[in-house]
Target: ABC transporter substrate-binding protein
Amino acid sequence: MHSPLTRRGFLATGSGLAAATVLPGLSGCSALTGADSDPDTLVVHSQLGTTAPGSPTYLAALDRFRKENPGLKVKNLINGDDLAQVYETSRLARKEPDVVMVNLYDKTLAWTDVGATVDVKGYLDDWGLRDRVLPRALAEWTDAKGRVRAFPYFATNWPIAFNRALLDRAGVDAIPTTGDELIAAARKLRAKGIAPVTVGGNDWTGQKLLAQIIQTFLTEDEARHAYTTGDFGSRGAREGIDYFVTLRDAGVFADKAQGLTSDTMTTQFNTQAAAIESAMSSALAKVPEKVARHTEVGGWPLTGGAVHDKPTILRTYTLIGFWISPNGTKKIDAVEKFLRFMYRPDTVSRFIKESGRDMALRSDTLSTDFPLVAAAQRLGGAVSQALLPDVYVPPAAAQPLITATSTSFTRGTSAAKVRAALETAYRSA
Model:
């Protein structure tokens, strides 16, 4: 598999227009001056600090850490979706931050392999933090060579949210659990001017839902093979694509879903313009109270012959981890203090209680102030779990799969063309 983070890939990332466009995204400093050679200053690069869910809790945690460690300064760099690009640019100049907080997906899949970040397995054991991590989370952050890419932190449940009040208004008596029931519900909702399932068909939210629906007829091993290799020609994959196309052409998804984004999706659901959405924990936490009180969470409806015995949801433990950079190894004592603090049960509990975050660490705390997040945490055996493909998709195929997703959500696109679009996404990988 070709990695975009080879030396050649790094040079391409850090040159010309790419560098010019990513540098302004930093909060308070440029990517190339992000690192601080002062051994008493820890530089952390994160997506938390502005409007991202959990930001207030994170900033408060930084304040507590500073007070508990008065001799250690913390410089907090903030980026949004361009964090990985900005980090790569700073790494090219050997001025990267010491710790990076980001998910395991797309570009970051290759970081440890090319030395952009370091294997943290030894640190996890030496600092006695392994037992704080849920076993499934540790497995997801461990690569094929046994290296642990980062310290796991945020996780997420990803159920289906159903606006019970809108379903009642349309005369839908029960939450749909089969494809036929979902199609019937969609027809009734449309008759009342309500969009059925809203989805970001033009971004990652649509890509995840498409993968979930395709897995209706795939075992976990079969799904892992399909998303690792780009081979969607198995009987189960073809049946899953057929099922998706049937639902799409029956009007299950919101109009022009192929052009919608995650922001559009959450807006439609939160304003009650749509009745159903596939919502990860951070989206569930943002559902307004007046909508949340008549919203239920469950799984995606199945159809005859499904390999699952219950409606499906997605779960992942790779939403955010603490990656250690080569520069960070030069300040490893400071990094250890920071990670021990962030792994403390009281710090973890505050993210759960104050921000409605699911965690990859052991905790008995529930998101009681975020009822939908708590409800998703309690689903347990009432649903079946589909495979989140993020850690299996080759980095070079990640963005082409978004394009394939938009094609797939375009009504009238045949099952054969959907399969071809998915497989074409892998040709550059």
